[in-house]
Amino acid sequence: TQLLEQSPQFLSIQEGENLTVYCNSSSVFSSLQWYRQEPGEGPVLLVTVVTGGEVKKLKRLTFQFGDARKDSSLHITAAQPGDTGLYLCAGVSQDRGSTLGRLYFGRGTQLTVWP
Amino acid sequence: EAGVAQSPRYKIIEKRQSVAFWCNPISGHATLYWYQQILGQGPKLLIQFQNNGVVDDSQLPKDRFSAERLKGVDSTLKIQPAKLEDSAVYLCASSPRFYRATNEKLFFGSGTQLSVL
After folding, report:
1. Which of A42, A48, A107 sits opposite B109 (nearest CB)?
2. A20, A73 in Cβ contact below 8 A?
3. Which member of A59, A67, B39, B49 lies 3.0 to 4.6 Å from B32 by CB, making a disulfide possible if both were Cys?
4. Torsion angle, CA of B33/B85/A5/A72, rounded to 10 degrees?
């Protein structure tokens, strides 16, 4: 059972277009992270959102955490070929009464931006 | 600053053989993780170490997988015997914090791609 559902699974667009990818769950998370993974490499952290409703911007990337802390979205404005990669969301689920949590990854959205 | 180092980069074995992967985390990082990433899926945590102690190995198939982190620095992950479904990329990650705080940052290595034939 996948705790985090990402959509779409694949996205192929032209340079300059805008796009949004989604990360949804029925579970509440302490925080949510977005990573980008390129072929043959490990994931690289882009952002962490902690507060429900939080919006963070990283240049042309805008990340939003849902009010109920169950979902998140990533919006890219004017996509460039360098944005190509696998975008993974990961939710931190913390056991009650413990400082130890677990990071659950979604399956990812494979983005291809054509010049 | 050197990143997380993993070796080998690629490994091809036949089923029922044994294989071992090595990871050297970023210097000073207390926490080390091993993840399994099957093609088309996100990474799945296999085991988490805090220094040289195991914090979470609930998703490690202990009948065939083992891992150790002697001296709290580098780590090895072993599979014995390997099955076809073990074909995946094995990622090592490290983080500086002692516990998984809500804004903890993981640094990943490039992974070892394992093919079991």
Report:
1. A42
2. yes
3. B49
4. 20
Q: Do B111 and A30 touch (CB under 8 A)?
A: no
Model pLDDT for residues A53-86, shown as the tens digit of each residue: 999 999 999 999 999 989 999 999 999 999 999 9
Is residue B101 classed exposed, middle or buried when 0-12, 13-18 and 19+ CB atoms within 10 A define those classes? Answer: middle
Instruction: For B15-31, give one letter per residue: b (16+ CB within 10 A) or e.
Output: eeeebebebbbbeebeb
In chain B, the residue whose alpha carbon lies closest to the alpha carbon of A101 is B100
3-state secondary structure of B63: coil
B19 close to B33: Cβ distance less than 8 angstroms? no
Q: Are B79 and B18 in contact (CB under 8 A)?
A: yes
B78-95 pLDDT per residue, tens: 999 999 999 999 999 998
**Strand-pair partners of A45:** A35
CA A18 vs CA A11, A72, A111, B54: distances in Å: 11, 17, 12, 44
Q: Rounded to the nearest 5 degrees, what angle is found at the Cα of B90, between the Cα atoms of A95 and A75?
A: 65
